[in-house]
Design goal:
alpha+beta, 5-stranded mixed sheet, 25 strands, 26% strand, elongated
Length: 712
């Protein structure tokens, strides 16, 4: 049961909604204007016998006046307000913030989950629960939803955008979204609900979370010290994922506003400049109740909706737990179109294309959540998970894919095992058995702010290393994270010798290394400033330069060097004569000896490629490690490694190298290998340039040749 709002503010708002003055109410009640003014200013409250007369004057019932948990039915109906065109004639072709991200549900999952983590209510110690619901509407369900969002009011604006769609990008996207809805007779809704979060608190216009999300751009008001976001751009992914530019919002507040907490509803529409009936409109529009205090009561604000309204808008929440529901209307996932079909899709060859689309969207959401937030969903010892996530998919109210809870043990078994071992205190100094987790501390030397020379202090980051499993994805990687436990940086450890046991590593810095870790807060602040809007790496940023210095990012580079060195020290073991692993490796690399009857060739001795290890990297490049056997000779010819696509017929396409480096027994100059005199083997590694691949990397086979000289 919600606590009622104070009588004075409540009555003041009801008079504005009803279009009445204090003097007019006083006349209807047969009282002085001073008596009504005293109620408004909270100097007094009306007698119980007067409450009934006030209810009659406001056109409501006595219970509403007594409880004051809702507005009266008086006032203007909910409608769309479109921002007028600029008086100076300026035009916006859309919200530029939306172009900071791709229309990709995996990007959406990363940004929205990060925002929910930042707004988690920490006092109760429970995780924030985030649920993604994909819902495809067709037929009568679609018609009913269009009526609920007042489509007839919006149609002229969408038509105006379509007429000028050829002139700018946002218009083309919106035009395609409208045509898709009417031509295919379907609409995809994607709702993001969080629970145990703060909700959109604060006034409609004043400084607060509500205004920061709904009214403003490039404003970030985060609750926690270890917040992931800092640019105020993440919310733009909601509108970027909507082909119609429309997002509806229902928030349950952790702090009452106007005496209420439940079903605070508003909608926001992002369209480019347009002209409707010769009237120019700047771009955005809002769905809400007209504010009587605005000019001509045109501007709308959020309203406290009833249960029937939120149900018609597909915004019904599970319970009264604080948090927010964002409904993306006309959700589209452009990136999924580039991924091709899967076996699951092929099995549905005869199924409806819409079902395939929402299944792909469902799968990609689960993948993204497991990849980026496995650490936030992992607990152990006294540390509880910060996050719970799930995805479900419907069509016209019927389940297409049942709700699927994302489990970090399934998606990232090795990394979650490593983190759990750290929380439970079961790490070891060295890896001697399968399943163990080794721990090392690595220094992050924090610079002084303001460009001053010197070091503020050394923050001990925590490095965890364990043996990799098949489900982990790309092996030999380090996942780096800070306080909110979202994977920020993923990097591969290069320069490893052949035969090393594949591993996964986790780097914990800032508050993730422990609240009591020295300089944890300072490290959190420093690394947060080193992240771009995508929050997917640490490096040089404008904020880092302004607050510290132009060379401050070098501290992060040194941290990476320390991490790679520590990883190699843990996973690279000295070869011991007679050891089983070494024997297997030597056997694998041995070239059969020539028989005594074989005639020795008369040509010069040529290095021979004896071992090749290749994998597909995170940027879809081929990553190659090769070992070359060097013959005994006073002088060895320089050779060029050439990487080709192995095709069944015709010439083999040659790929470009993006990286080619020497590891052992050789040097690389201009893409050519020069072998060390007296060495018996050489090892080099390289990475191809994905832009030189004529087809998708996953569909190719690789061939590597060593050619004498320049390789031509």
């Amino acid at each position: 049961m919600e606590a009622g709002e104070d009588f004075g503010p409540w009555l003041s708002r009801q008079l504005r909604l009803a279009g009445k003055t204090q003097a007019e109410l006083a006349d209807e009640l047969g009282l002085t204007r001073a008596a009504v003014s005293a109620w408004i200013t909270r100097r007094s409250v009306p007698r119980p016998t007067v409450m009934g007369e006030i209810a009659k004057a406001l056109g409501t019932d006595l219970g509403t006046v007594h409880t004051r948990t809702t507005d009266t039915q008086a006032g203007l109906p909910v409608t769309w307000y479109h921002r007028p065109g600029y008086q100076d004639g300026g035009r916006d072709g859309g919200n530029a913030a939306a172009f900071a991200f791709d229309a990709d549900v995996q990007v959406l999952a990363r940004e929205t989950c990060q925002n929910s983590l930042d707004e988690r209510l920490v006092e109760n110690g429970r995780p924030v629960r985030v649920r993604y619901t994909i819902h495809e509407l067709t037929g009568e369900k679609l018609e009913a939803f269009r009526a609920a969002v007042l489509w007839d009011e919006l149609q002229p604006h969408y038509s105006a955008v379509s007429e000028s769609a050829a002139d700018q990008k946002v218009g083309r996207v919106v035009d395609a979204g409208v045509r898709d809805m009417f031509e295919k007779g379907r609409l995809i809704l994607l709702r993001v609900d969080d629970y145990n979060a703060s909700g959109l608190t604060g006034d409609d216009y004043g400084d607060g979370k509500f205004a920061a999300v709904v009214r403003r751009q490039l404003e970030s008001l985060k609750s926690g010290r270890g917040a992931g976001g800092s640019y105020g751009l993440g919310k733009a992914t909601l509108w970027a994922t909507s082909a119609l530019g429309m997002v509806l919002i229902n928030s349950t507040l952790s702090v009452p506003h106007e005496g209420r907490t439940e079903r605070r509803v508003i909608g926001r529409l992002e369209l480019p400049w347009r002209s409707v009936d010769a009237t120019p409109y700047a771009g955005p529009a809002w769905l809400g109740r007209p504010d009587p205090e605005s000019h001509n009561a045109e501007v709308v604000r959020s309203w406290w909706a009833d249960e029937e309204t939120v149900e018609r808008l597909y915004l019904t929440r599970d319970n009264d737990e604080p948090g927010t529901s964002f409904l993306i209307v006309g959700a589209h996932d452009v990136a999924s179109l580039e991924q091709g079909r899967t076996e699951a899709d092929d099995e549905e060859e005869g199924a409806d294309a819409g079902i395939r689309d929402i299944r792909v969207m469902h799968r990609r959401l689960v993948e993204a959540l497991g990849r980026d937030f496995w650490a936030a969903m992992t607990g152990g010892g006294s540390r509880l998970p910060l996050l719970e996530t799930s995805v479900r998919t419907y069509r016209n109210g019927e389940p297409v894919v049942e709700e699927e809870t994302v489990d970090p043990i399934d998606t990232q078994p090795s990394r979650s095992r490593a983190l759990r071992a750290f929380y439970e205190g079961t790490t070891v100094d060295r890896l001697t058995e399968a399943g163990q987790v080794a721990l090392r501390t690595v220094p992050l030397r924090l610079p002084l702010s303001g460009g001053r020379p010197g070091t503020l202090g050394t923050h001990p980051g925590v490095l965890l290393v364990t043996e990799a499993e098949d489900k982990d994805g790309v092996p030999n990687q380090v996942h780096s994270l800070r306080g909110n436990r979202m994977t920020i940086k993923k990097s591969t450890v290069h320069g490893l010798p052949l035969g090393v046991t594949q591993f996964q590593a986790v780097l914990l810095v800032g508050h993730a290394a422990g609240e009591s870790a020295p300089f944890a807060g300072e490290a959190e602040e420093f690394l947060r400033a080193a992240e771009p809007p995508e929050h997917d790496r640490w490096g040089q940023t404008e904020e880092l330069t302004l607050r510290w210095s132009h060379s401050a990012h070098n501290r992060i580079s040194r941290l990476t060097t320390e991490v790679n060195a520590a990883v190699k020290e843990l996973v690279v073991r000295p070869r011991r004569p007679g050891a089983e692993d070494s024997a297997k490796l030597r056997k694998k690399l041995t070239v059969p000896r020539r028989t005594a009857a074989s005639k020795r060739g008369t040509g010069p001795a040529v290095p021979e490629l004896v071992e090749l290890d290749a994998e597909i990297g995170e940027n879809r490049e081929w990553r190659i490690t090769a070992e070359v056997k060097l013959p005994r000779a006073d002088e060895l010819p320089a050779m060029t490694p050439v990487v080709l696509l192995d095709v069944r017929s015709g010439g083999r396409p040659r790929l470009d190298w993006a990286e080619l480096v020497a590891v052992e027994g050789c040097e690389v100059e201009g893409g050519v290998l020069h072998f060390a005199q007296g060495a018996r083997k050489a090892v080099f590694r390289g990475a191809t340039d994905p832009t030189s691949h004529p087809v998708r990397t996953e569909l190719t086979r690789l061939a590597l040749e060593l050619r004498v000289g320049s390789g031509e």
